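Retro notes
What went well: the complex prediction finally ran end to end.
Inputs used:
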Amino acid sequence: MNKKFLSVIENPYRATFEELDDAGLWFSAAVKKEGADMSVLLVKGAVNYARAEQNPPTLSIGDMQTDNSPNFSKTISEMVKNGTPVYVCAEDANDYGLEKEALVAGVHKQSRGELARMIAGFDEIWWW
Amino acid sequence: MPKKKTLSLLIMDPPYESAKLITAFRIMHAAIVQGHNVNVFAFEGAVSITMKEQKAHANPVKNTSVEEEKHPTTKDWVSSLFAAAQKNGCQFNWINCGLCVDERGAGNWIEGPQRGSPKQFLQWAMESDTTITITAG
């Protein structure tokens, strides 16, 4: 039986400058590459990952400059292009000021009231 | 005797930072002593849990010696879980995420854990009776 997996990303920007990625998104993309039936739901502050226009800063620490900080609009866009359904909680997006902002193309808004039914459709939930 | 089941866990917390790691250990222990198989995928900071160089220490605030303090190390708890699995006739597998090990320099670990990637966790998730992710946040 092929299981359906849902990664719920709730805690964003955890060591993302060091890892150049979000651990949960990265892991989800990695198992997708191995053939997993994987979907992603962004909730709470993680909805910001789906913002269409993002301009990550250059990080300067001492003499070191890091100019390849992660651009999550690209990360999410690639996930969508690779066939990973990506959802954001609509009310969380509004709470974080995204109601009038464009989201990455292909990202679906899902109302909070429908999340339980949506989640019930998956075999496993990985909560990040 | 309950039917033998397989539980897979993904953990992320490094040692000595969060209550979640002890929760994870308790879940592993509970499953193993009941004879169930347990798989653990250590991701990100959790790869430091099995580092061989961990050492107990004295406590100058409590004025205890190393022997008196009896400070536990997470590597010893993991070794103990391997031993418990053998005693209870079940499997205990521990994989440290290889890339996470490399970036942390955490490659010198105790006997038992193996190096791996998300591919192994996916395989476990597909084959296990249930999977738990205990992630940092």
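What we learned: The beta strands of chain A are 4-9, 37-42, 59-61, 64-66, 86-89, 108-110, 124-127.
What to try next: split runs per interface for comparison.
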